[in-house]
């Protein structure tokens, strides 16, 4: 055991150092939606909150394809960095911005189509009107968001995640200020009410995109990747490569996000109390999941760098370190969920004993699927680090939509286990993915040829 620790200690330390800023940056992006809901709910009331909250959820679901798809760029950058290929890093950066613009436009149009048909979600006329207009603004804001994410991949891939972290935290503060000013109408600014919150998110995301691109282009740290000669190199092949590798990863992200959205819909069929309990428990699980995604991103970068050096041993160690790290972290959160479930629920609700009781039982179940949730998202990350994206997409589609969701429906409704049955189904799907994805990684590593640097590790 001591020998194992000595071997993996440097890899674990590097993964922790890389993952912490990524976790903070990712939480910052998610917390913008939380900030919008908090300001709208406190300043305007329940109906505007319902419209804004539903719009945030739907926009996130559509944008998840782009967010997941662009994340492959960091792994490609880390591979190129492992080979010492500065020209390729430059081309990946420029190609990434083009892909971000393309995805922003395409997914923005899809979001716009959803907005104009908002009535299909069966909401009241007032909520439908608010949700439609709110979603139109948020769909536009996906363009600067994707540009920020694409540029951030350069920083993360080069093991400089603090850049994106600092900009994201700054934008989070700006978003809070813009929310208050534009909702209430402070000084010369107009009082736009609920739509001021959406504009606040748009302005914050524009700031993020402009700030990170300007920093990358001007900071001495990145100048070696922007030599004048690199500008003549075409990037069309890299645009196609990012789309070919990124879109399957984007749909992997989408399948999981859609699974939890559909689970929430099923919980709503059981009644308001069951839905409220589900939302409380899933909010806690989502917070720990975001931590795990940071470890997943760090694992992808470390694995990609090792692949660039053509080191089979380093690839395996980077993957194992990420898996052990997420197992330790999610094991700790599982212990908290299992032992402090009543106290955690009391942070959300105190005046409804029925909801609190159901939520407390769901938090216990959330404790059981913490490990599965963490291992499966890291499994996706380390496979992305070796450019294996197609099979993981099939695995997640099978695990979530063939195993998880049908089982949730059967247990929740046919066997009358209600919300608990829905969560057992989610646990089954996550566990299936948590088993199959790491197995895929280790199978590919065994087949890896040490001398290969340009070919993917999979058939």
From TrEMBL:
One of its GO terms (molecular function) is antiporter activity. The chain crosses the membrane at residues 12-34, 54-78, 99-118, 130-151, 163-183, 195-216, 250-269, 289-308, 320-338, 358-383, 395-414, 420-439. It comes from the Bacteria. One of its GO terms (biological process) is monoatomic ion transport. Keywords: Antiport, Cell membrane, Ion transport, Membrane, Transmembrane, Transmembrane helix, Transport. It is a multi-pass membrane protein. Its main location: membrane. It is found in: Cell membrane. This is Multidrug-efflux transporter. One of its GO terms (cellular component) is plasma membrane. Pfam families: MatE (PF01554). CDD domains: MATE_NorM_like.
């Amino acid at each position: 055991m001591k020998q194992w620790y000595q071997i993996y200690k440097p890899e674990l330390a590097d993964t922790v150092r890389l993952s912490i800023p990524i976790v903070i940056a990712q939480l910052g992006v998610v917390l913008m939606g939380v900030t919008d809901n908090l300001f709208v709910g406190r300043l305007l009331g329940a109906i505007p909150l319902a419209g804004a909250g539903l719009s945030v959820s739907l926009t996130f679901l559509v944008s998840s394809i782009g967010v997941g798809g662009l994340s492959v760029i960091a792994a490609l950058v880390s591979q190129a960095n492992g080979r010492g290929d500065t020209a390729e890093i430059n081309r990946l950066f420029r190609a990434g911005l083009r892909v971000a613009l393309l995805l922003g436009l395409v997914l923005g149009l899809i979001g716009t189509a959803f907005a104009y048909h908002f009535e299909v979600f069966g909401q009241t006329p007032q909520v439908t009107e608010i949700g439609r207009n709110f979603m139109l603004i948020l769909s536009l804001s996906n363009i600067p968001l994707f540009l920020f994410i694409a540029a951030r991949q350069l920083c993360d891939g080069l093991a400089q995640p603090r850049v994106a972290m600092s900009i994201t935290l700054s934008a989070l503060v700006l978003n809070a200020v813009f929310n208050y000013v534009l909702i209430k109408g402070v000084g010369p600014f107009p009082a736009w009410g609920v739509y001021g919150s959406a504009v606040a998110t748009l302005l914050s995301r524009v700031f993020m995109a402009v700030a990170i691109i300007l920093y990358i282009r001007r900071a001495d740290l990145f100048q070696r990747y922007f030599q004048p000669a690199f500008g003549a190199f075409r990037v069309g092949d890299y645009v196609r490569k990012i789309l070919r590798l990124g879109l399957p990863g984007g749909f992997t992200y989408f399948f999981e996000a859609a699974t939890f959205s559909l689970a929430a819909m099923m919980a709503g069929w059981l009644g308001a109390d069951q839905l409220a309990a589900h939302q409380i428990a899933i909010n806690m699980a989502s917070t720990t999941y975001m931590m795990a995604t940071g470890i997943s991103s760090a694992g992808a970068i470390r694995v990609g760098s090792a692949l660039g050096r053509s080191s089979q041993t380093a690839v395996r160690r980077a993957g194992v370190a990420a898996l052990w790290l997420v197992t330790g972290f999610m094991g700790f959160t599982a212990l908290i969920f299992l032992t402090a479930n009543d106290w955690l629920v009391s942070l959300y609700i105190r005046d409804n004993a029925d909801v609190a009781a159901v939520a407390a039982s769901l938090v216990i179940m959330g404790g059981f699927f913490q490990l599965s949730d963490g291992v499966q998202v890291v499994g996706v990350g380390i496979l992305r680090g070796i450019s294996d994206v197609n099979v993981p997409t099939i695995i997640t589609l099978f695990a979530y939509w063939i195993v998880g969701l049908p089982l949730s429906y059967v247990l929740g409704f046919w066997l009358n286990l209600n919300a608990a049955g829905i969560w057992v189904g989610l646990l089954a799907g996550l566990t299936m993915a948590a088993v199959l994805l790491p197995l895929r990684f280790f199978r590919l590593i065994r087949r890896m040829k040490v001398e290969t640097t340009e070919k993917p590790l999979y058939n």
